[in-house]
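Researcher: I'm preparing a figure for a lab meeting and need a structural model of a single chain. I don't have an experimental structure, so a prediction will have to do for now. The sequence is pasted below. Please return the structure as tokens so I can convert it later.
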Amino acid sequence: MFMKPLEFDRRYGELDQVISACTGMPADDEPDEPSEALRAYLRHSWHTHPWALATAERQIREYARNPPGRLRLSLGEFYPVPDVGLPQSAIGDWLFVIADHLKRSIEEGEVPPPAAPGTHWEWHARFLELGQFLGGWFSQDMPDEFPDHDAAVRDYTTTTHPQLLARLTGELHELLALALEEPEYAFAVAELGMEVDPPQPYSPSGWLAHLADTLGRFKADYGPGPTATD
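Model: Understood. Here is the structure written out token by token.
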């Protein structure tokens, strides 16, 4: 019988976040040097929800101390670590190295300075709504679904809750505040799911600035206001 969501989160929720951050990246953490993937997790977590780091350290260490056998995994009672490019016999030691890095970061207050995301996972963790917007409305199918970019933006604004519109606007301003070079903005929007070019005559950063301005002027329709007789 598979675990219910609450039990899974209590036992493996933050462990899963760390493993997700490492999936697809080299698992080359050393005792004196965290991997690029772990640095990305630390940077994002310290600046958004630092209280989760201790939970991650505990869950990872407990899992490494008591690895599940095949039967428990088949019953869905344990978290199955995805393929991270290491032999099964090396997973436990790798997890202990990660737990030690997390513990050291917490105890010594090693807060990574703000920086542009360094991994695919970090781009999407930091710019969650922007990833939903670009990946959902500006995939390679966009030209078949909408006559132009403005029509896709209008469809998003008319079908999305105003609070999510505000979140997207904030993420656009945050991305622009990174002050990246133009090729880096092209890379950023591609990482976040955009599979078509910006509309002419905009560069990637120019279109992002245009979007931020356009969405910043958006006003939700709350229906007719009170009349003089109300």
